[in-house]
Structures are given as structure tokens and as C-alpha cells.
Design goal:
12 strands, signal, alpha+beta, 25% helix, elongated, Secreted protein, 10-stranded antiparallel β-sheet
């Protein structure tokens, strides 16, 4: 009887050991998942940095790459002169006006004031890219370009001035340090560490203090889809093609910036 009891006792003990280990293994799986649950998402990091949240110890822009002389949006910067139906050219005095400022590709209209953590970081990065060859605007102050100039509008055409600012495009990512650790972690990135998808555009400034860029006089043949689009919009501002990209009905003549009077 003693011999038959021992094997049963041994098997029973093995089962009990197995059952005791099973909950421990389950807990080992759950713990890592719980550690990740409270991590700040890239969108939360971006929102906290943009709002200069009190939860942050610091938020900084980390540059990864840059491109100088990157052209900005194509903008109409003068009123439209209508010379439609006339067989001769017309001389007109155009009032040209535009402005540039540092812009940040986080969300539409986002500026990052200088007194915020992120704004200060953008300023410091701007200092790094400000050289003797290329002078850039490092803060969110506006620099303007305003002058009057007489030019010729072609027969049966609409005439106006176009402008595209030259910018230094610095791209990288955001690194946020939180005051309180979230499941043991205080540093988070948006959108990810090493990414180059957050863009900061620093306008480039000429030595005379005016914005650098491309300025051109555009003539658009009347009666064409291009002219009709401008007239039907009541000459209001709209998206325009770049220099030399508007098609055969449009003539673009670049104006050297040396001909623009200093402010």
C-alpha cells in the first residue's frame, strides 16, 4: 500500500506546482502592456507643446535636416490691372505689398510665441542656421516688402505682380520632457525620434532688410480659362501657379530684387 500511495502523491504535487506558476506567467504578460498604456501619444505631445502645457518640464525642436532657398507659396501681391479688349499695351503703376514671418508646420496658423518653451527652442535653432551668407528671421516678427513700380501690361491682358518668398526649411521632430513620469517614462517624441516631418520655415532676409524671394510680373491673356478664373473670383486672392508654370496663356517676367527700393 505504501508503494502505490507514493506515485499518486508525486503526481498530485506536480499538478499543484503547475497551477501555482500559471498566474505568475499571466502577470508577466500583463505588466509590459500596462507600462505602455499611459505613454503620451505623438498627438498628445504635439498638443502639449503647442499649448505650452504646465505638465511639461521642457519641449524642444530637434533639427534633422535643412534646405536653404526653399520657395514658399505663390502669392499675388498687387491689384489686377484689366487691359482686356485693348490692342495696345498699357503702362500702370502697381502698388506691391507682402510680408513674411517664421511659420511652423504643426497646425494651421500656429506661431509658437517667443516666451514659450517651444518658441524659445525654435529661436535657438534659428540662430544655428543664421549665417553671414543667409540672414533669416528667427522669431515670429513680421518683415514687410512694400513699394510702387510702373510696368507694362500687354494688349488684351490682365497684369499683376506675383511673389514667392525664399525660406530656410528646417525639418525635425519634437522632444517633450514631462514633469511627472508616465509609467516610468518622462521623455516622449512627436511624431517619432529621428523623424523629419515637423517643418519650421525661416524667411530669408536681404542685406537691405527686405525679404528675399522671387518677384515677377504676370500677364494673362483675356478670354482664357486662366483670365476667367481671376475675373470670376472678383480679383480676390486665390492659389496661383509658380513662375513659368501657368501655361501658354500666361507670360511671366522676373523682376530682379536689386530693382526693389530698400525700406
Amino acid at each position: 500500500m505504501t508503494r502505490t500511495d507514493r506515485p499518486r502523491s508525486h503526481r498530485s504535487r506536480k499538478k499543484r506546482i503547475t497551477l501555482a506558476l500559471a498566474p505568475v506567467a499571466a502577470l508577466a504578460v500583463v505588466v509590459p502592456l500596462m507600462n505602455q498604456a499611459g505613454a503620451a501619444t505623438p498627438s498628445e505631445v504635439t498638443a502639449d507643446c503647442a499649448a505650452d502645457s504646465d505638465k511639461l518640464e521642457n519641449c524642444e525642436f530637434v533639427d534633422v535636416q535643412f534646405k536653404a532657398n526653399s520657395l514658399g507659396p505663390n502669392q499675388r501681391v498687387s491689384a489686377v490691372t484689366d487691359n482686356c479688349g485693348r490692342t495696345t499695351a498699357a503702362t500702370n503703376t502697381f502698388s506691391v505689398s507682402t510680408s513674411v514671418t517664421r511659420t511652423i508646420q504643426l497646425e494651421d496658423g500656429f506661431t509658437a510665441a517667443a516666451d514659450t518653451k517651444l518658441g524659445n527652442s525654435f529661436f535657438e535653432i534659428g540662430v544655428k542656421f543664421n549665417t553671414t551668407e543667409i540672414n533669416i528671421t528667427r522669431d515670429d516678427k513680421t518683415t514687410g516688402l512694400q513699394f510702387s513700380r510702373s510696368d507694362t501690361v500687354q494688349p488684351d491682358s490682365l497684369g499683376f505682380f506675383m511673389w514667392s518668398a525664399k525660406r530656410t526649411d528646417v525639418s525635425g521632430f519634437l522632444r517633450a520632457t514631462y514633469k511627472e513620469a508616465q509609467n516610468g517614462q518622462k521623455v516622449f517624441f512627436a511624431p517619432s525620434e529621428g523623424a523629419a516631418t515637423v517643418h519650421v520655415f525661416y524667411p530669408q532676409i536681404l542685406k537691405n532688410g527686405t525679404p528675399d524671394g522671387r518677384l515677377w510680373l504676370r500677364n494673362v491673356k483675356c478670354g482664357t480659362p486662366e483670365a476667367n478664373g481671376i475675373q470670376n473670383s472678383a480679383n480676390s486672392l486665390r492659389a496661383e501657379p509658380g513662375f513659368g508654370e501657368a501655361g501658354s496663356n500666361v507670360t511671366d517676367v522676373e523682376i530682379p530684387l536689386t530693382e526693389i527700393p530698400a525700406p
